[in-house]
Every structure is written in C-alpha cells, then in structure tokens.
Amino acid sequence: MKKVGVSILGLGVVGGGTYRILTEQRDFYKRTQNVDLIVESVLEPDEAKLAALGVPAEKVAHNIAEVALDPDVNVVVECIGGIDEAKNYVLDALSAGKTVVTSNKELYAKYSHELERVAKHHNAGLFFEASCVGGVPIIRTLIDGLQSNEINSIIGIINGTTNFILTEMTEAGSSYEEALARAKELGYAEADPAADVEGLDAAYKLSILSSLAFHTKVPYTKVIREGITNISKEDIADGKALGYVLKLLAIGRRTPAGIEVRVHPAFVRKDHPLASVGGCNNAVFVHGNAVGDIMLLGRGAGALPTGSAIVSDILYAASHTDFRYSTFKNTASPDKDVNFLSDFGGAYYLRLTADDEPGVLAKIASIFGKYNISLVELLQRGCREPGKATIVLVTHETHELAVQNAVQKLRATGLVQVESVLRVAQ
Ligand code: HSE
C-alpha cells in the first residue's frame, strides 16, 4: 500500500478540520483508496490548538525547514492564510520537491504563476481545490469534468460568510453586526472579516475560477467589486415585499466583446434556484457550450467541508503522479488582448428619498426616460422625514453605465437622495 506523509501548516479552523479528517478517516482511505495518509507533522505554535486536537508532542514541528527537510513528508498542506509567511513556506516546501495543497485563495489569486513555476521546476505538485467554494469540488469540475466545454459563464454565491449574514438578516431579522458576530463564532469568516464583507474573498475566488473557466489569466484586480457593508434592513425588506432575495453574487462571463467579472449584492427572484441557497452554503452555476447548465451546491466554508476539499486533493495527488500541475496554461501576465468589460446589462433596484411635492415623480421618470431606462415596478410610501417620500423603483433590463448616468443626474436635481442602487439578477 502506498504511504503518503502529510505535514499541516497551521491548525486554525481549516487546518484543524483537515487534521481531524486525516486522523479519523485513515483506515477508510486505506480500505477504499489503497493509500495510507499519515500525518507526519504539524507546524502550529499555539499550544491550545495542539491540545484541543490531541496532537502528540513528537508530531509538532518547530519550523518550516524541519518540514521541508523531512524525507517522510510528501505533501505539505498550507492552512496559514494571508501572504507573507504562507508564501515563503509554500515556496520552501515546493523547492524541497514537496507537493503542496493550499486553501489560500489570496495567495493563489495573487501568486499562482510564481508558485506554479517553482512547482514545475522542482517537479512538485500544487493543488488548491479548497481555495474556492469550501467543500464544493468546483475546481476539479472545471479542470477534469468540463474540460470538453467552452465555458461561457460562471454565476454563483461563493462566499459563505456574506451568505450567512444576508440569510440571517432576511430570515431572522438580525442586524448586520449580530449576523457578522455569529459568522465569526462559527469559523466562516476570514481572520479579517473585511475580506468577506467587502467582497474581496469572493473576488479572489472569482479570479481563480474565471481564469480556469476562460483559459486566460483573470487578475482579481479586474473584478468589479462591491461588498455588503452598506446593505440596510430596509433594502432587504423592500426586496422581500417585491418578491426578491438579496445575495452576494459572483458573475463571470465570456462574451465576444470581452470578459465580464464582478462581485456585488444582487436581488434574485424568490423562485430562482440561488434564492434558496441559505446560511453558509455556496452554489455555482456553470454554463458550458456542450453540457449546458450545471449547478453545484454545498458548504462553502467551515472546518470539515474545507478539510474535505484538502484531503481530496491529497488523495488526488497521491494517485496522479503523471498530472502534477492542476492549473493555468497561460502566461505570467494578463493576456494583452483580453478586454475586461465595465459595462454590462441587467435590471436595477433603486431606493430614493424625494421631496413629497407635485411633479417630483414626473421629473424622476423623465430622467430615467432620457437614459432609455424603463421601469417595471414603482412603489411610493411615506417617510420618517416630514415632507419627504420613499420611492422604490425596479427597472427593466438596461445597462450599468446608463443607470450610473441617471443616478448622477438624479443627484444633481437636488430633489432626490439616492439611498441605494442594487442590481437585480434575471
Ligand atoms: N471566509 C470564506 C467564506 C471561507 O466565508 O466563504 C471559505 O473560503
């Protein structure tokens, strides 16, 4: 039976989940995969984390050199997160010829080319299924399951923390702060939750997934990004009244005009399949030219789901010595001829506070008319501020730039405060 020695760097939520799976399922892998996965060492200075998992003292490594030089270690699992230490450790491990499995989407989105170059040079494997969409095997699906297709679009909910927060705000009426605190407690949120709530975590993942799907480097800096920090209970309630649910969507499309990549909150109709994807669950729709639509759904964050993706990568690496590089076949810099689009189609929700006097609504309607934006829903209600009214609008399909121009014009009238502008997915 093949023996594979594993070292885990970092025993936080994901590293801890990986340790548990590897130790608890060892016999199962021997029986079903004919491979013995042995945790040879862990690199974790926090005694409390080591004690909580019952890691024997002789398994604790004290520095990366000890791991990289250990001939019994074949696979190094990086669960440290962030860049500085994680990147150096991964490079040390790859340079020593160890296969690396990482859950670090920031590291992969920013440095995939450098890491792959070093991996190839040292004939080491490099795998990153756990970097995107937790336990959902989206990367393996794109690389191995759908490689026969030209992928036209990827649309999904790819951040568990924000989906958890929005679900709590929608279903339990929690405040944003309460829901975020709970997401941290459950280990869904990143060490700095700003990465989740500002959409950066989803942008890293979308950059990795679109690069694989569209066979070209999609830098995360090209992702149009808006987070959920400005979402109010009022928007969620208005959406609910109109039959919509708010989600943080990641959208990647390849069109003849270029590549469109964006992460932002968007309303989906309550009968849309993504509307019922609640809590920390994630879901991704992929459209391939031959297969049509497929949807993957599952836990996008958490110790065991993410650990599941890591251990699957270890098993894959153990049985695929001929296929040691899982990823991009592109160059070190973005392709020069790729056009990243800043205008795109869609419908919009707007919440305005306006002076409650004759002619105001007509002025608003005429500004939308000027930009060829037609309205499908219009709702006016009283407002706490005396002399003001709240106006909620939903547009027909239009264009991002048309809406931005109309909003600018509305603001310039001085009659209207634009409280929120949210996209509505069709
Ligand atoms: N913070 C991430 C999320 C963890 O909430 O989705 C999984 O990548």
Number of strands: 17
Task: Say which molecules are bound, naming each kind only once.
Answer: L-homoserine
Cα-atom radius of gyration: 24 Å
Helix content: 25-40%
CATH class of the largest domain: Alpha Beta
Q: Tell the overall outline.
A: elongated
Q: What count of structural domains?
A: 3
**Which stretches of 5+ consecutive residues score pLDDT under 50?**
none
Which architecture of the largest domain would the CATH scheme give at its second level? 2-Layer Sandwich
CATH superfamily of the largest domain: Dihydrodipicolinate Reductase, domain 2
Q: Report the major sheet.
A: 11 strands, mixed
pLDDT averaged over residues = 92
Beta fraction = 25-35%
Verbal overview:
This protein is of the alpha/beta class. It has helices at 13-24, 26-33, 47-53, 64-68, 84-95, 105-121, 138-145, 160-172, 176-185, 194-197, 200-214, 233-241, 303-319, 360-370, 400-413, and strands spanning 2-9, 35-43, 60-61, 75-78, 99-102, 126-127, 151-157, 224-225, 244-255, 258-269, 281-288, 292-299, 345-355, 375-382, 388-395, 398-399, 416-424. Helix 1 crosses helix 13 (303-319), helix 5 (84-95) runs parallel beside helix 6 and helix 6 (105-121) packs across helix 11 (200-214). The radius of gyration is 24 Å and the shape is elongated.
Features:
11-stranded mixed sheet; Alpha-Beta Plaits; alpha/beta; 426 residues; elongated; Rossmann fold; binds L-homoserine; 6-stranded parallel sheet
